[in-house]
Task: inverse folding
């Protein structure tokens, strides 16, 4: 069975160890985590204006292919607000990591 893609939405300065933890949790909940900040930041030089622009374009393309956006972290930054707005414009489900876990738990309860 194919799993849905879930876009990981976090602040730009989120530590890689947290990004990995968020991706792991989304994976454990049954989704394919898509995290441009973790993956694409490894080969793009984000201090270069052209590559930073490319990074944002790549992230937008990846978001457009995802079924949902998962907000991770306690605060919402300006860049996160922009990603959430884009997701809403494209009718992509927006939820939090905790919300995704509750959805999964509710589904398991109904399966019994």
Result:
């Amino acid at each position: 069975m194919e799993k849905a893609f879930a876009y990981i939405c976090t602040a730009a300065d989120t530590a890689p160890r947290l990004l990995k933890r968020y991706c792991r949790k989304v994976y454990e909940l049954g989704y394919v985590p898509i995290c441009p900040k973790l993956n694409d930041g490894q080969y793009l030089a984000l201090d270069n204006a052209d590559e930073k622009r490319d990074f944002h374009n790549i992230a937008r393309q990846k978001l457009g292919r995802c079924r949902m956006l998962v907000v991770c972290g306690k605060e919402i930054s300006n860049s996160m607000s922009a990603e959430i707005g884009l997701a809403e414009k494209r009718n992509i489900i927006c939820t939090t990591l905790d919300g995704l876990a509750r959805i999964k738990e509710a589904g398991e309860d109904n399966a019994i």
About this structure: The beta strands are 5-9, 32-34, 68-71, 93-96. The mean pLDDT is 90. Helices lie at 16-28, 36-39, 49-64, 78-89, 97-111.
